[in-house]
Specification:
Elements (H helix, E strand, L loop, with lengths): L10 H20 L4 H12 L4 H6 L8 H4 L7 E2 L8 H23 L7 E5 L5 E5 L7 H21 L6 H9 L3 E4 L7
Parallel strand pairs: 1-2
Antiparallel strand pairs: 2-3, 3-4
Helix pairs in contact: 5-6, 6-7
């Protein structure tokens, strides 16, 4: 599989990112994943033209791309997927459902899945953060704040309301992560 779109960035970045992208496509092609997940993953990756993004995600293995982009699972989990107790399995299922609701709202708003990360940490807490908080130009700051606004809105619609949406907005725009509490679990 190859991607035809050209990359943006400095000549050095685009050359490096192009080799990473080619390697990623080869790994993805060889990965044992469902054909529909592979096709959806290739479509999402084909839309990414920022060389910096490819460089920053160079360590994602081919078989993890569908999960990383939310094609097969809504969140990347940072601990062993096997749960020993029913309670732990239910908490994980609840977090995954909350992550999917947030992702659905962001999808509906047109936010590309490569713009943010959903992560379940070692203590089974769900967080969302922006994928790229680089750049100090006024335009980049405005882009980060706009994405933060969309994320805060998505959390408000799909999960338990945030205590301080404005503080969360600023934290997200500056590289922080926002906790997502499942509104279904509160019932």
């Amino acid at each position: 599989m190859t991607l035809a779109s050209s990359l943006t960035g400095s000549p050095k970045q685009t050359q490096w990112a192009d080799s990473i992208r080619s390697e990623t496509m080869t790994e993805l092609d060889a990965a044992t994943i469902a054909d529909d997940a592979r096709a959806a993953t290739v479509k999402l990756l084909g839309e990414v033209t920022d060389a910096t993004w490819w460089i920053e995600t160079r360590d994602v293995p081919g078989d993890r791309w569908p999960a990383h982009l939310g094609v097969t699972t809504p969140a990347v989990e940072q601990r062993v997927a096997q749960r020993q107790t029913d309670g732990a399995k239910q908490r994980l299922a609840s977090r995954m459902a909350a992550a999917q609701r947030v992702r659905d709202v962001l999808d509906a708003a047109g936010v590309h899945r490569t713009a943010y990360r959903l992560t379940i940490d070692l203590n089974d807490r769900l967080f969302i953060s922006q994928a790229d908080c680089s750049g100090s130009s006024d335009q980049r700051k405005a882009e980060r704040l706009a994405l933060a606004d969309q994320i805060v809105t998505a959390i408000g619609e799909a999960a338990r309301p945030l205590r301080d949406p404005e503080a969360t907005r600023k934290a997200l725009a500056n590289g922080g992560a926002a906790p997502i509490s499942d509104k279904e679990a509160a019932r």
